[in-house]
Write a structure and sequence with these properties.
- About 3% of the residues have low confidence.
- Helix 4 crosses helix 8 and helix 7 runs antiparallel to helix 8.
- This protein has a domain of 78 residues: Ubiquitin-like (UB roll).
- Strand 3 and strand 4 form a beta hairpin.
- The chain is built from 14 helices and 14 strands.
- With 385 residues, the protein is of the alpha/beta class.
Length: 385
């Protein structure tokens, strides 16, 4: 799974990525610091079955801390987006192509209103305008892809040689869109081969919302004006964030100065800390008390669980010891779309296992499961082949 971290220049995208991954992306207070996409691995928290099962798990990837499993996801931070990016302005073409295989997007917004649409310093900028223009740029980019061969396809649809939804899917398949969702969007829009540009744009908007959903990380909540501007932001997932605070906590924890679990509403100082750093940490503590967390971890997790509707399932080979052949307890934690079946999990493990699938066992209950059985988050499953 890959999540794209997007936004205009100087919104705090690279800080957000660094805070979530400690990947070390370059940061600066000027536009287009990010030229090439930065990749990193972040983690989402979920309740691990180990606690209720009375086991000590051995994750092959990520870790388990006090019964919270940290499951890896990929993040990519791309060049800042400016108005008319779909026409190639700024780093527009690169920005948009770098997002093609993202499952969802996190839009990092400068909620303080201290930067304009180009990322330059200003005062009293309305951050809701940034949300509008980013969605518009992505949708016009997708529209441009669709329009290139629309007239040719329209003739073929009228002749009955192709179906409209098949053409739309073929044109947009490079953007990691779902064939089923494209078909659903085409039917819902009622679009015809003679569609106007506005009707095509409405179709693209439906597809984008379903296949490239966007969460809003309302960043820089520590700055003046942010609280007032936060109420201007609308979306399915809007999270108050301070990426700089999260990055400071992660680095302090890495240096052994504090004890901190990402996403927590508190941290503990360990030993003596220089006065300047201690003062900064106390300011961050006040932010945690106010907002409940820095928001970075919450934004990641709500993107995965709410926007993408993913669940976490644990495949094992020994249903009694909950382990693999090497004795590792709950070694794997797989993210699957809600509604996935036992056979979907088998295919996720390996295509050959999916093909040979004959059933599964719910390791918590001992029940035998068929291929159509729908899984729930936290299931521990043995696949039978």
């Amino acid at each position: 799974m890959k999540i794209g971290v997007v936004g205009k220049p100087s919104s705090g995208k690279s800080t957000f990525l660094n805070a979530a991954t400690l990947v070390g992306a370059e940061m600066a207070a000027h536009p287009f610091t990010t030229i090439k996409p930065n990749l990193g691995t972040a983690y989402i928290r979920t309740d691990c079955p180990c606690k209720t099962l009375g086991k000590t798990c051995s994750p092959k990837h990520g870790q388990c801390v006090e019964g919270k499993r940290f499951v890896p996801i990929a993040l990519v931070d791309v060049a800042g987006l400016v108005p008319d990016a779909h026409k190639g302005k700024g780093m527009g073409n690169q920005f948009l192509s770098d997002l093609a295989d993202a499952d969802a997007l996190i839009h990092v917004v400068d909620t303080s209103g201290s930067t304009d649409e180009q990322g330059n310093p200003t005062k009293d900028h309305d951050p809701s305008k940034d949300v509008e223009f980013l969605e518009r740029e992505i949708e016009y980019w997708m529209l441009g892809i669709l329009e290139k061969k629309w007239e040719q396809a329209a003739r073929q649809v009228k002749m009955g040689t192709i179906k409209l939804h098949d053409f739309v899917y073929e044109q947009l398949s490079g953007l990691k869109v779902s064939e089923e969702e494209v078909k659903r969007s085409v039917l819902e829009s009622g679009i015809s081969p003679d569609a106007s540009k506005d009707e095509l744009l409405a179709l693209v908007r439906l597809i984008r919302k379903r296949n490239k959903p966007i969460a809003i990380a309302a960043n820089k909540m520590d700055l003046p004006g942010s609280e007032k501007n936060f109420d201007l932001l609308e979306g399915d997932v809007v999270v108050a964030c301070c990426a700089e605070a999260e990055l400071a906590l992660r680095k302090a924890e890495e240096q052994g100065l504090i004890s901190y679990i990402p996403g927590s509403n508190e941290f503990k100082m360990l030993g003596e800390i220089p006065a300047s750093q201690s003062k900064a940490l106390e300011f961050i503590r006040s932010l945690l008390e106010k907002y409940g967390s820095t928001g970075v971890q919450e934004c990641l997790e709500r993107t995965v669980s709410e926007l993408l509707g993913m669940i976490v399932v644990y495949p094992v080979e020994d249903e009694h010891k909950m382990c693999d052949k090497k004795g590792r307890v709950l070694p794997d934690a797989f993210l699957l779309p809600s509604g996935s079946t036992a056979q979907d999990l088998a295919y996720k493990v390996h295509s050959d296992i999916g093909e040979k699938f004959i059933g599964a066992i719910d390791c918590k209950t001992g029940m035998r499961l068929g291929k159509e059985h729908k899984l729930t988050s936290g299931d521990v499953i043995k696949i039978l082949v």
